[in-house]
Design goal:
CATH topology of chain A: Phosphatase 2c, domain 1
Strand content of chain A: 25-35%
Enzyme class (chain A): hydrolase
CATH class of chain A: Alpha Beta
Shape of chain B: globular
Oligomer: heterodimer
Helix content of chain A: 25-40%
Order of helices and strands of chain A: HHEEEEHHEEEEEEEEEHHHHE
Number of helices of chain B: 18
CATH class of one domain in chain B: Mainly Beta
Protein name (chain A): Protein phosphatase
Largest sheet of chain A: 7 strands, antiparallel
Family (chain A): Belongs to the PP2C family.
Number of domains of chain A: 1
Radius of gyration of chain B: 31 Å
GO cellular component, one term (chain A): mitochondrion
Keywords (chain A): Hydrolase, Magnesium, Manganese, Metal-binding, Protein phosphatase
Number of strands of chain B: 23
Radius of gyration of chain A: 18 Å
Distance between the termini of chain A: 48 Å
Low-confidence stretches of chain A: 1-12, 14-33
CATH architecture of chain A: 4-Layer Sandwich
Mean pLDDT of chain A: 84
Number of strands of chain A: 14
Helix content of chain B: 25-40%
Chain lengths: 304, 613
């Protein structure tokens, strides 16, 4: 009985997301008519603790945060995963990641963005330091930029969030995971001053940067580790291939929802040999099952 | 007859122009400003945030997305670093800060709306400029205290006769409780001249009246008019006219012979003493009275201290040319805010300084965009007795210019806020000036080794009374320790020196080294703890202003002890100190009514009774 109400809630959440994102994408449609190279993007996701988080905040799923911004020269997407360990110190991990993403969005839309995603992350991190209200915590982050003039995707990635670019059923480009040791990704952090010596803190400059020339119809998935740790690559690839060249935001949203839903289901499946458990075993840690985590899926197709 | 013309015109006119409706524009670009809370390497709390649509309104509170200035209230005027006012006899509403903003399209302004999202009421003037130095006042008013709540401020503005896309807003925040914050500025205007429209309306009215008069048929001469009486009245008028002419001629002759009336019997010194109470504009008007007044009102002794800042909107190179013959003994001059948009060229300033610079002690050139290396070099050559140099926001001065200043060794006050000064020339300058008392290096982002600067201050400048290191990121505890050698220090502003985040022993050193401290700003030094602040309670009994904004780990226990021990405390800013609850602050405000306890807040857009719509 309980499972039914659960699923019901999950589906309604997914729908909620679907509707909200559908409306934003349609609002942008005059832009698309110009036939500038652009990205058509939708969002879906779940917070880890569904029952506790009574309020859904825009741009956030639990401790995960995301943003999509569009300016004349570029489309910019980003995800960040707040490191949950800070909860024990009385710090809301979602605040850091959400501030980081919101500031990225503000920097992009206010025209203070030079097209370099790593620079964007660094500047956004700097704004954290400049805030009167101390925002503490740490977060992984991944930012992807489509430069319209060159039809090239520029990316910057810190930690274990990441992206996959799929063309006709083949992964043509993907991010590398940055890890200090198992389950401890690289992270941007602002620890409480009294802890600063004992905390892992990576400079924004340590971001892994790549660039890749995209083609019309390419599918881009930008997601937090909640997706990559739970959904096996094969299944993911299968889902992504379904939306090759998709221009209908509703269909795109359906697939995004299904990836998020799948990740959610597998995360709570105790008997499933998830990519996370496989990786743990390679480190000699014996675990089975998924990894319950916040899930954020940003799914996009390239239209040149 | 004239009337006929009007009637004809009335018949021809169609009175168009009704389609000219104003359209709204938000700020496109910030052209210039005098101060900002944030730093140039960031966007939080900077002037830039005033561009575009309102991002926070109607939310009320202290948000990084707004434009915030450096000061509020009377605190900076009560601090040890307060500059001595020049020419206090200038009247009118004083303004302390300004921002120049531009919009995409030039319009005849109809309405200007300011979105104030925190502590509203500081706007005192709104100007419209043509971009080449001509300014017209749109609105002026006293600073207000309007209470808490965001507001849209939209005063009734004057009509102007040119199209503009440049506005200047002037602020006076002396009445405010805390920092004011602005979200956006909306300019509504149209492409057609409303003043012309208004005159069009007058024309319309005139036509109406004319037609009414015509209906009365008064231009028709009646058949039975008494011609004899009419002619007689005309001749008597002619006789009166000739006698009136005689009167006027006599009057003119008399006035050219008389001098200044009772002023003649006073000795020159007394008249000069009286004239010295006049502001600059009145003084200039006096020179137009007669030769006697001209001689007295342009006396060099009346022109030893000149403040042109309140007249920035009408000062140009001609002003300098006009004043220079009178400035033989010029000692103090404030040219701040003047000469921008091409009104004074570097060459014109240089020739003024050459002529009148020899005796200058105090030179203030804040926000003078024309000041470049050549100007600074000329200052270094001509003003050999310079005690004060204030060049806030003068961004054109490079290393070369600053280096030339090292030839002066009489400095007591240097204000380099938001300039591009680097450490090497600064160190040379400091070594040359052992009598330096005040230095402001706030927001100087090119200072890459503040520790060297602080060490130099500690070694050479023992007369130092105030230092402002606001937002200089390269300062570390090492530099603060060196600064503690300056035992006469009364004011230390280390706000946002993020390099001092983990202070170690340096606060202890500062407290024991500088026992005269009256003002201590430690905003956003996140690592400051109770342990770092305790020494100030023991060693610095005269502390009056303390800013601990965003210092996360200080406890209510310490704050209470601070309030109890520091008997002279007046300002205590504990905004964003996470461990202190609002209720406790309320309690403290009751118990310590003499202390102004600041507590910044953020709230979402609940309409307040103070909102103006």
């Amino acid at each position: 009985m309980q499972s039914i109400t659960w699923t019901g809630r999950i589906i309604s959440r997914a729908l909620w997301n679907g509707i909200s994102n559908y409306s934003t994408t349609t609002a942008d449609s005059p832009h698309q008519k110009k036939r500038d190279p652009h990205i058509l993007s939708v969002v879906s996701g779940f917070p880890k603790e569904l029952c506790k988080s009574t309020k859904l905040r825009k741009g956030q799923f639990g401790d995960d945060a995301w943003f999509c911004a569009r300016v004349k020269a570029a489309d910019v997407l980003g995800v960040a995963d707040g490191v949950g360990g800070w909860r024990n110190y009385g710090i809301d991990p979602g605040e850091f990641s959400s501030f980081l993403m919101k500031t990225c969005e503000r920097l992009v839309t206010s025209g203070r963005f030079n097209g370099e995603p790593a620079n964007l992350l660094a500047r956004s991190y700097n704004e954290l330091l400049e805030n009167k209200q101390p925002v503490l915590g740490s977060s992984t982050a991944c930012v992807l930029v489509l430069n319209r003039a060159t039809s090239t995707v520029y990316t910057a990635n810190i930690g274990d969030s990441g992206f996959v670019i799929v063309r006709h059923g083949v992964v043509v480009h993907r991010s590398e995971e940055q890890q200090h040791y198992f389950n401890t990704p690289y992270q941007l952090s602002l620890p409480p001053p009294d802890h600063s010596r004992s905390v892992l803190s990576d400079r924004p400059e340590s971001a892994n940067t790549t660039n890749f020339r995209v083609e019309d119809g390419d599918v881009i998935l930008l997601a937090t580790d909640g997706v990559f740790d739970n959904v096996p690559d094969k299944i993911l690839l299968n889902e992504l291939s379904r939306v090759q060249g998709e221009r209908d935001p509703v269909k795109l949203q359906t697939v995004a929802n299904s990836i998020a839903f799948m990740a959610r289901k597998l995360a709570f499946d105790e008997n499933f040999m998830s990519p996370f458990s496989k990786s743990a075993r390679s480190y000699g840690i014996s675990v089975t099952g998924g990894k319950p985590d916040d899930i954020t899926v940003l799914l996009a197709t390239v239209a040149l | 007859m004239v009337d006929v013309d009007i009637w004809e015109e009335c018949a021809l006119r169609t009175f168009d122009g009704e389609e000219c409706t104003g359209f709204p524009q938000y700020v496109n670009e910030v052209i210039d400003f005098s101060s900002q809370y944030g730093s140039d390497i960031s966007i939080s709390y900077t002037a830039y945030n005033i561009t575009g649509k309102p991002s926070k309104y109607p939310d009320y509170g202290d948000f990084p997305q707004a434009f915030v200035m450096r000061t509020y209230g009377k605190w900076w005027y009560d601090a040890p670093s307060r500059p001595e006012p020049i020419m206090t006899q200038n009247f009118g509403i004083q303004s302390q800060d300004y921002i120049d903003v531009s919009f995409e399209q030039k319009v005849y302004p109809e309405q200007v709306t300011l979105y104030e999202t925190y502590n509203p009421g500081s706007v005192v003037r709104i100007w419209a400029g043509d971009g080449s130095g001509k300014w017209k006042l749109l609105w002026e008013g006293e600073p207000q205290l309007v209470g808490h709540g965001s507001r849209k401020f939209s005063p009734v503005i004057n009509q102007i006769d040119f199209m503009t896309n440049l506005l200047r807003v002037e602020f006076n925040h002396s009445k405010l409780d805390y920092y004011t914050e602005l979200d956006a500025i909306l300019l509504v205007g149209s492409h057609c001249n409303n003043a012309a429209k208004a005159s069009n309306n007058i024309q319309k009215d005139l036509c109406k009246i004319a037609s009414q008069i015509k209906a009365l048929n008064i231009d028709v001469v009646s058949d039975y008019m008494d011609m004899t009486t009419t002619l007689y009245s005309l001749t008597s008028l002619a006789q009166q006219y000739s006698s009136m002419l005689d009167d006027i001629n006599q009057e003119i002759e008399l006035s050219s012979r008389t001098t200044s009336g009772p002023f003649d019997s006073l000795p020159d010194e007394t008249v000069l003493r009286i004239l010295s109470n006049l502001d600059l504009v009145s003084l200039c008007r006096c020179t137009k009275v007669n030769k006697h007044f001209y001689r007295l009102a342009s006396d060099a002794m009346l022109h030893t201290a000149i403040n042109l800042k309140p007249y920035w909107h009408s000062v140009n190179y001609k002003t300098l040319e006009y004043l220079s013959p009178r400035c033989k003994y010029l000692q103090k001059i404030d040219l701040s805010w003047c000469g921008n948009y091409g009104q004074i060229s570097p060459m014109q300033f240089i020739s003024f300084i050459e002529k009148c610079g020899k005796q200058i002690n105090n030179l203030r050139l804040d926000c003078c965009k024309f000041i470049n290396d050549d100007c600074v070099k000329q200052i270094a050559v001509s003003c050999r007795n310079l005690k004060e140099l204030s060049i806030r926001n003068c961004l054109k001065i490079s290393r070369e210019g600053f280096e030339s200043l090292a030839s002066i060794s009489t400095f007591q006050r240097l204000d380099f806020y938001r300039t591009g000064i680097e450490a090497d020339p600064l160190v040379k300058l400091l070594e040359q000036n052992p009598n330096l008392q005040h230095i402001n290096l706030g927001s100087c982002v090119s200072l890459s080794s503040m520790d060297t600067v602080a060490q130099c201050l500690g070694a050479h400048n023992h007369e130092l009374v105030s230092v402002d290191f606001w937002k200089t990121y390269s300062l570390t505890p090492l530099g603060v320790k060196a600064l503690a050698n300056c035992s006469k220090l009364e004011e230390v502003d280390l706000g946002w020196c993020l390099g001092v985040s983990i202070p170690g022993e340096c606060m202890m050193a500062l407290a024991t080294g500088c026992r005269k401290l009256r003002k201590l700003f430690l905003a956003a030094l996140r690592g400051i703890t109770d342990r770092d602040l305790a020494p100030f309670m023991e060693n610095c009994p005269h502390l009056q202003q303390v800013d601990l904004l965003g210092v996360r780990s200080i406890t209510p226990f310490l704050c209470l002890r601070f309030l109890e021990t520091m008997k002279e405390l007046q300002l205590f800013d504990i905004s964003f100190c996470d461990q202190i609850q609002d209720e406790v602050v309320q309690e403290w405000r009751r118990c310590f009514p003499k202390v102004s306890i600041k507590r910044s807040s953020q709230s979402d857009g609940i309409p307040s009774p103070f909102q103006h719509y």
